[in-house]
Design a protein that fits this description.
- The chain is 45% helix and 9% strand.
- The protein is α+β, with helices and mostly antiparallel strands.
- It has 2 domains: 281 residues, 2-methylcitrate dehydratase PrpD (Orthogonal Bundle); 140 residues, 60s Ribosomal Protein L30, Chain: A.
- GO terms for molecular function: lyase activity.
């Protein structure tokens, strides 16, 4: 059972008891110490494997090598073991392990998602929680519970509070969820978690320019930064330091000045006392390496490709219009107004947020791949560019309504596509959810998560190393503190960043 918590701005002279503050209620969930049910623990294992797969595939990409190089220059204190840098067996200070590992997980835009009033990639909670668990000697059961709590808080915040409406980046929901998860992991008092949640929110609010126009590698660093900052916030709170308060409801708070303003009213659903965290079961992973709102449309493109070839091929296509939700149209569609979304010279980060590009490539190639769909020579192919520039999106109120529906059977992240050929004839089809979605044509289960990991690790990691990691990961809820250090994947080759920075 969940409880709907009403959140609004309070004047400084208007009493608001600490127990009535959203940050306290979040902290109370974290300190409740309710064990997750079996199906939640199983899903935590799935997402740990999912994260490892996408992190492995990105280990030698530029942003990841840079973050890893930075982390390896920050060894942990001698009286504690530190946390493992993914791709190695070396240990560093936990906030820096969270930094390096968070970038590796996020780089390919290929792990899990939850979409509601706002956007999120809740798997971003896992790197900082794993790092703190390794550093502080917590076991697999504690880490499993902590991950479930962090997912619960992020799902609740994303369900109730829209950040993107005011161009605030979605990692502002990640900082508090990580802080809450660490509080659960370490069994901290509610008061300490309360201060850490507030500090984490205060220090992770940033604009969405990181996902607008020419998108840079910072898109991968942003959640890693939030995880690193949240660890530091917990450390300060454990040392007795306070935070701006009330961070959500105050007269000069995040809500009052960054979101809907002094008249704002939000509803955030959190578990009732004694209720187990189940939010992770509402989240979903990706089959394709691109923004989640393109997942269903990639599957639709795979379905439409043969039909277009039967009609004479892509050369006969005059236009393709994708009717979809407000979010899809304005964030990754032509409604964003970003010319970069149609530019063959655009960055990879921009392309994976361009549904016109993604749909065109998937139509021509019969799918979408984390490597083969992004090389410059593929992006600049004349046939692809012509098809790409024929694609536009429009908002359809019905798809927007379904996007925001609270009914799982009705909630949708897809759209309806109209292909118009050079003779005026049309081909139409639509899709509501991705094939891999729990309600899709081929829902992901344990076998699919393991298969995704193996596919991403193929050629990069030996079969023996893949199996060693999977044996450990699959036993997560029963692992000892020492065994948590084995949750890394060491590839056959690991590059270093060119040159040296400040550290």
């Amino acid at each position: 059972m969940t409880v709907d918590h009403k959140v609004r701005v309070h004047r400084s002279d208007e009493p608001l008891e600490r127990a009535d503050q959203l940050a306290w209620k979040i902290a109370a969930v974290a300190s409740d110490q309710v064990a997750p049910p079996a199906e939640v623990a199983d899903m935590v294992v799935n997402r740990l494997i999912d994260n490892a797969g996408v992190a492995t595939a990105s280990l030698n990409r530029g942003p990841v090598t840079a973050a890893r190089t930075q982390a390896l220059r920050h060894p942990g204190p001698g009286d504690r073991p530190g946390a493992v840098v993914f791709g190695t067996r070396e240990r560093v200070s936990p906030e820096w392990a969270a930094w390096a590992n968070g970038v590796a997980v996020r780089e390919l835009d290929f792990h899990d998602t939850y979409l509601a009033a706002d956007y999120s990639h809740p798997g971003d909670n896992i790197p900082p929680l794993l790092a703190v668990a390794q550093h502080t000697g917590r076991d697999g059961a504690a880490l499993t519970r902590a991950i479930a709590v962090a997912y619960e808080i992020q799902v609740a915040l994303v369900t109730g509070i829209s950040l993107h409406k005011h161009k605030i980046d979605h990692v502002a929901h990640l900082g508090p969820s990580v802080a809450a998860g660490i509080g659960s992991l370490l069994e901290l008092p509610t008061e300490v978690i309360h201060q850490a949640v507030q500090q984490a929110l205060h220090t992770t609010t940033a604009t969405r320019q990181s996902r607008k126009g020419e998108i840079s590698s910072w898109k991968a660093f942003a959640p890693a930064f939030a995880g690193k900052v949240a660890i530091e916030a917990v450390d300060r709170a454990m040392l007795g330091e306070g935070a701006p308060s009330p961070i959500y409801e105050g007269e000069d708070s995040v809500i009052a000045w960054m979101l809907d303003g002094p008249d704002a009213a939000y509803t955030v659903p959190l578990p009732a006392p004694g209720e187990a965290p189940r939010g992770i079961l509402s989240t979903y992973t990706k089959e394709h390496s691109a923004e989640y709102q393109s997942q269903a449309l990639i599957d639709l493109a795979r379905r439409l490709g043969p039909r277009i070839r039967e009609a004479g091929g892509p050369g006969r296509v005059r236009s393709i219009v994708i009717a979809t939700s407000h979010h899809t149209h304005y964030v990754i569609g032509s409604g964003a107004g970003d010319p970069q979304k149609y530019d063959p010279q655009a960055s990879r980060e921009t392309l994976d947020h361009s549904v016109p590009y993604i749909f065109a490539a998937a139509l021509l190639d019969g799918g979408f791949h984390h490597e083969r769909s992004y090389p410059p020579q593929r992006v600049a192919d004349p046939e692809l560019v012509t098809l790409w520039r024929s694609i536009t999106t429009v908002e359809d109120p019905e798809w927007t309504r379904r996007y925001h529906s609270s009914d799982p059977a009705e909630k949708a992240f897809g759209g309806a596509v109209t292909v118009t050929f050079d003779d005026g004839s049309e081909l139409r089809d639509e899709i509501a959810v991705a094939d891999a979605h729990p309600l899709g044509a081929r829902p992901f289960g344990r076998d699919e998560y393991v298969g995704k990991f193996r596919g991403l690790a193929d050629g990069l990691v030996s079969e023996a190393e893949q199996q060693r990691f999977l044996d450990v990961a699959l036993a997560l809820p029963t692992l000892s503190a020492e065994q948590l250090g084995e949750l890394t994947v060491v590839p056959l080759d690991l590059k270093a960043a060119p040159g040296r920075g400040l550290f």
